Amino acid sequence: MLEWYRHSRRYAIGMGVAGSMMIGILIGFRQGFDYGWLSIPWMWLFLVVAGLGMYGIFRLVDPAVGADWLKVGRAWVLLYELTDIKVRHRGMSMHLDLKDSGGRKVQVKVDELQEDRDMWDIVYNGLLHSVVTNGATTNWAAHSLLEVPEESE
C-alpha cells in the first residue's frame, strides 16, 4: 500500500455532533419550535445513537491505493486495467464509478481521493492510462469535471 486516507477522529466527532444537532433542530421544527420533547430521556438516547452513527459513517471512509490498484472497503480495482470510468453526482457529492477488466467495481467520492494529493495522483494516472491506452469508456462528467481525455479511436 502506498497511500491511504481516513477522516481524522476530530472531524468524525464534529460531524457526529453536527448530525445530532441537525436532527434535534429538524425535530424541533416539526414540533412547531417546541423543544419540550427534550425532557423525554429516550429522545436524548436517540440523539446520542444518531451522533454515534454519524461518527461511524465518517470513520468508515478508508480508500487505499497501491502502485496499480485502488481499494475502498472490501472492493478493489486495477487502475491500469479500467474498462469503465464514470463520474456521477449523488446527493451533494461527486462519485467515481470504476470497473476493471476483471469485472470488479468500486464507487468512491472524488473528494475523499483528492484530500490526499499523492493518492489522487496515483488514481488519476491510472484513469489517464486506462482511457488513452486501453480505450476505457467514460461519460461527459469525467471529461468536463476531471479533465480526463476522451477515449482514443
Description of the molecule:
There is one protein chain. The strands form 2 sheets. This protein has a 4-stranded antiparallel sheet with strand order 1-2-3-4, covered by helices on one side. The chain is built from 5 helices and 8 strands. It is elongated and about 65 Å long. It folds into 2 domains: 3-59, no CATH class; 64-146, no CATH class. It is 45% helix and 24% strand. The model has no long low-confidence stretch (mean pLDDT 86).
Précis, in short:
45% of the residues lie in helices and 24% in strands. By secondary structure, it is of the alpha+beta class.
Number of strands: 8
What about the largest sheet? 4 strands, antiparallel
Unreliable segments of 5+ consecutive residues? none
Helix content: 40-55%
Beta-sheet strand percentage? 15-25%
Assign an overall shape: elongated
Individual helix count: 5
Transmembrane segments: 12-30, 42-61
Keywords: Membrane, Transmembrane, Transmembrane helix
Explain the layout of strands and helices.
Layout: E1 3-4, H1 9-30, H2 41-59, E2 64-65, E3 69-72, E4 75-78, E5 82-90, E6 93-100, E7 105-109, H3 110-114, H4 117-132, E8 137-138, H5 140-146
Parallel strand pairs: 5-8
Antiparallel strand pairs: 1-2, 2-3, 3-4, 5-6, 6-7
